[in-house]
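Per your request, structure below.
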């Protein structure tokens, strides 16, 4: 990006911030001088609606509010979108330490792409980056869960809502625990097989408690050490997180949140396929992938002393909230992230035709990511006897840099019939090409993006009819650099618009019916080829659009004093238009010539069901949640070929019963069931078997509890992802963990 455009970004950003801050300074001064009669009672948490989700009472797996659907706190029943919330109770019952463990049961239409990071597939479209407190957070390993309060999943194009144009299928948002004004805390130790030990502790409470000034804190400590079935793999984590919440009277607050996460565990792609299952397999006719008999739980492609993965991840975010008037609120937000990733992967890449020789690679790798993000939002509510109009305007500014160095080397083939690493000792004792050394590829990407938006919510007839509409404009830029070639390529400065429209009908408070239309926009570089193969003489590529049309019904109803139910039924139709492919040229000068063309698009449609039930009687509480998803997909330019990693059908159940009185008081027992259809992964199909889990907990007194989780009871070991026939990821099978928790 040139300096002129960069200066324009900064001028807009600074002008917007200055205007917002100027409006808030006067209000802050007024707030501190206000009479204490307006302050909240001592001990209560100050809530600055509409930018704060209210704390929810314990209500099983049900959650009512979210901010991910609009930038402001809304009831799920009022949002024209498919949203799933996985709350802390569900995370605790599963004793989940990674997001995939809860996404299986908490949301329909979302499936796992990889095991080593939070890479998911949502309705046939890949989502490789996740969100932290509503802002995109890049990580090449799984996000830490030590301080996560809840996980929110929004489906469909998210540019209008999230300020990031890359979320097409949807986004997964990790929400950090917020400091509380009540002194509380907990500490938990979990043990399992392979020397597994995990510690997690959260402590919260007040620091300052005066009439017009309060300070609350949160401190989170965690760590994990474990071996693995495979000799090359291990887990080694250290986590330190903290939060401070400052309340200046009742109208102003400042929330600071952050963590440092060191994850040095090595957990990578270490299995390979049976060569016979790869013969004749094509995209149009994929064959079932089969794990090689020699690729057992204990197989490793290399030695642990030769592998390396040091990952240091740090971030901080700051949220300033200001109530400007009785009907006007402002939010200013800053997010900063820094990731340093150092690796040396020793891996298989190809199983040869003899079906036992594994070709391998040795890849030293360096990744550095720095991200800065600033947001500002102002919301105003205008009420009349006939309608209520809620208007929100705001901006997002993002700047990031990504550096990567890597080298690909060959440590020699491995005979998987009788694994012998003797030759590895000699190979790794010698100097080798590595990141930053000869035979290295280097790249640097610097990105900048500025966007601004408005959203209108108009409600009529006591919120029985709600209209929602929003537009966001993006302006992008940045550069791509090749340090080895000493070249710099400027990204196109693009300006484009995205949208989201919707309507919600609430004939009665317990039912809402909605329709939504949303789109992301993707400007394209390059040209189509209308003449002959690869002559690059065609017209510029058309802009792509990620589109969503969705209809849904939501229910949240108490059927009696003891029975309540909630859930949603959603029908969706999604596409990515103008996908760039290689195929027959419609205007070829020579019949049969092929070149670069754009096809109608990647398509996905289907329906999803999410539901929950709670029965609360004198003896105890029963909770049940379930999901079901069914759909179809098609890959651009390949009729009847399903999209990569699209799962046609997925079903899950999770339930528990907890005794609240009688001789079994404090005892809880529960179970899980998960199954999904086979998916196409490149030229193979991967079938996930049905898996079952069980969990139980006993709590005694006011402080202590012990919990046992048994996952994958039938010990199914199955493939999750394939990069090459000698490089696949698997789930290892049965897993059991025992946890002891003390809370106060």
């Amino acid at each position: 990006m040139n300096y002129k455009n960069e200066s324009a970004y900064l001028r807009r950003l600074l002008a917007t911030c200055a205007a917002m801050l100027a409006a808030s300074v006067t209000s802050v001064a007024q707030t501190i001088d206000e009479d204490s009669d307006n302050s909240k009672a001592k001990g209560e948490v100050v809530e600055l609606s509409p930018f704060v989700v209210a704390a929810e009472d314990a209500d099983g797996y049900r959650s009512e509010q979210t901010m991910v659907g609009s930038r402001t706190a809304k009831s799920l029943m009022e949002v024209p979108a498919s949203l799933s919330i996985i709350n802390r109770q569900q995370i605790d019952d599963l004793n989940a330490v990674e997001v995939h463990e809860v996404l299986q049961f908490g949301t329909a239409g979302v499936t796992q792409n990889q095991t080593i990071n939070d890479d998911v597939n949502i309705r046939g479209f890949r989502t490789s980056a996740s969100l932290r407190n509503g802002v995109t957070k890049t990580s090449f390993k799984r996000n830490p869960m030590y301080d996560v309060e809840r996980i929110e999943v929004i489906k469909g194009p998210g540019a209008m809502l999230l300020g990031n144009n890359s979320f097409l299928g949807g986004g997964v948002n990790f929400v950090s625990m917020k400091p509380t004004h009540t002194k509380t805390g907990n500490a938990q130790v979990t043990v399992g097989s392979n020397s597994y030990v995990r510690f997690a502790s959260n402590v919260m409470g007040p620091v300052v408690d005066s009439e017009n000034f309060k300070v609350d804190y949160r401190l989170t400590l965690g760590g994990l050490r474990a071996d693995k079935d495979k000799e090359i793999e291990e887990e080694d984590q250290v986590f330190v997180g903290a939060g401070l919440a400052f309340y200046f009277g009742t109208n102003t607050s400042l929330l600071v949140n952050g963590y440092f996460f060191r994850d040095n565990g090595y957990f990578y792609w270490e299995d390979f396929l049976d060569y016979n299952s790869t013969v004749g397999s094509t995209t149009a006719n994929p064959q079932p992938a089969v794990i090689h008999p020699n690729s057992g739980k204990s197989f490793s492609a290399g030695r642990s002393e030769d592998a390396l993965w040091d990952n240091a991840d740090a971030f901080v975010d700051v949220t300033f909230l200001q109530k400007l008037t009785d009907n006007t609120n402002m939010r200013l937000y800053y997010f900063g992230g820094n990731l340093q990733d150092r690796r040396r992967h020793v891996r298989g890449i190809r199983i040869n035709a003899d079906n036992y020789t594994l070709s391998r690679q040795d890849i030293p790798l360096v990744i550095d990511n720095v991200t800065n993000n600033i947001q500002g939002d102002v919301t105003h509510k205008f009420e009349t006897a006939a309608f209520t109009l809620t208007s929100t305007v705001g901006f997002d500014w993002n700047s990031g840099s990504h550096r990567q160095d890597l080298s690909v080397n060959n440590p020699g083939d491995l005979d998987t019939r009788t694994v012998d690493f003797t030759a590895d000792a000699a190979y790794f004792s010698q100097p080798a090409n590595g990141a930053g050394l000869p035979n290295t590829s280097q790249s640097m990407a610097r990105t900048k993006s500025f966007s601004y938006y408005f959203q209108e919510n108009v409600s009529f007839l006591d919120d029985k009819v709600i209209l929602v509409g929003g537009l966001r404009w993006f302006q992008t830029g940045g550069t791509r650099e090749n340090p080895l070639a000493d070249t710099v390529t400027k990204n196109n400065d693009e300006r484009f618009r995205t949208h989201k429209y919707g309507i919600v009908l609430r004939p009665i408070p317990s039912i809402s019916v909605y329709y939504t239309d949303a789109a992301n926009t993707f400007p394209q570089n390059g040209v189509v080829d209308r003449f002959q193969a690869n002559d690059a003489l065609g017209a510029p590529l058309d802009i792509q659009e990620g589109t969503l049309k969705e209809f849904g019904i939501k229910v949240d109803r108490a059927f009696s004093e003891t029975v309540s139910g909630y859930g949603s039924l959603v029908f969706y139709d999604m596409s990515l238009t103008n996908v760039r492919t290689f195929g027959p040229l419609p205007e070829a000068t020579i019949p049969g010539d092929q070149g670069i063309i754009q096809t109608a698009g990647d398509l996905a449609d289907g329906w999803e069901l999410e539901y929950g039930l709670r029965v609360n009687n004198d003896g105890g509480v029963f909770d049940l949640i379930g999901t079901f998803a069914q759909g179809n997909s098609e890959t651009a330019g390949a009729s009847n070929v399903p999209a990569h990693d699209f799962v046609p059908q997925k079903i899950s159940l999770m339930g528990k019963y907890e005794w609240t009185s009688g001789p079994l008081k404090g005892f809880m027992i529960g179970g899980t069931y998960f199954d999904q259809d086979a998916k196409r992964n490149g030229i193979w199909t991967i079938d996930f078997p049905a898996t079952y889990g069980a969990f139980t907990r006993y709590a005694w007194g006011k402080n202590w509890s012990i919990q046992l989780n048994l996952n994958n009871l039938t010990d199914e070991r199955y493939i999750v992802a394939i990069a090459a026939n000698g490089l696949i990821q698997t789930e290892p099978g049965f897993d059991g963990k025992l946890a002891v928790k003390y809370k106060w």
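The chain has one domain: 3-743.

Regards,
D.
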